[in-house]
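Reference record
================
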Amino acid sequence: MHEKPVVPEQPHAMEMTLDNALAYALRLQQEGRIKGAVQLYTRILEQAPNHVDALHFLGLAQFQLGDGEAAVDWIRRAIALKPDFAGAYNNLGNVLKCLHHFADAAQAYQRVIELEPDNADAYNNLGTLLRAQGKAAEAETMLRRALALQPQHAGALHNLGNVLVELQQDNEAADVYMQAVRLRPYDAENYLRFAKVLYGLRREQEALQVYEKWLEIEPDSCEAQHMVAAASGRDVPARASDAYVQRTFDQFADSFDQVLQRLEYRAPQLLVDLVARVVGPGQGQLDVLDAGCGTGLCGALLKAWAHRLVGVDLSSKMVGKARLREVYDHLVVGELTAYLSTHPAVYDLVISADTLCYFGDLTAVIAAGAVCLRPTGLLGFTVEKAAEPDAPDGYHLQCHGRYSHTEPYIRRVLTGAGLQPVALETAVLRLERQEPVHGLVIMAAKMTV
């Protein structure tokens, strides 16, 4: 949808007082009509180059348009004219944090605290910045200071809960998230975090109640729908919806690698070790697809075998992270089954690490994987292993939202797709609640006629 044009009856900036023009520009900005606001701020500054508020808000508008560096420049100009402008320092810190200029952002927040020692928002912002830098203990200190100043600060409560989870203080984190939910009953992220902590504490019934409350408030939420199904076993879908996967991994992209490192995630290395055993040393000889590439953890390991390496993933933000690794020849944002089925006989090797755990029924996606393989091609993937009594249909949606599969089911699906296992092994994929997650590591080839 195109941005609405500035309404014809807008008074000409030359015919307005500067205060009126600024108020009108702010209104445009608040309505999301950012380009119109930028035009008006610019005209104000043509008449009053040192108008501090116009400089400040123009910087915020440029940030909303995606130009963070320009935003920093405009806000710094406002601060140069008004060195005690705490609000501008706070927004400068927010922009610098988004640009990953963490040291400069920290200085900006510290300056706010110097100017306004009782500013709870500044302590909250500094706490989130420290967490982003991996300084959880220091972040906790700042967030507790924010709450000492403003005990009902819902944002600081949420952020403190996040930090406490990282510090493995889950019981207190649950209490903190509960307070955040009560203060912000329409904030989906609070429900998701709260329920996940309860699940980790083995308080599954309480987690279900939180998910159900979330669904009651947001009945159209794909996340709430999926997690209620997972926690309750009711109306379980055959696979996670595209919307659920996209939203989950778009939100997860920035912290994905760090979180999986803490969970001792091994699926990519297990698959690559299997490739080395089955295929032999990598000599850049194969056309390779990283199916569900995420941030590119597999791609970096598969590069040695790749004449051409392609990655596909449903999350555009995960693909953006994968692009930064500079190991792929081509990256695609798309649904996996559709991509596989529309690229027949293109790949020598298709690898999918911990992607099929978002599919319950694997029939269609495995069949599509067989379609895209050349006659001598190989399909390698991991799934979480289900106990047969828990999965009478061959798969089971677990409380954490992922599917697990039984070994007999995997063998049946492979056979139905015209594939046979070259290797099918049990291994620990990662940790969950400090316990090993057992999975299946599979390599399959087309059946010979």
Summary: The longest strand covers residues 419-432. The CA atoms of residues 257 and 295 lie 8 Å apart.
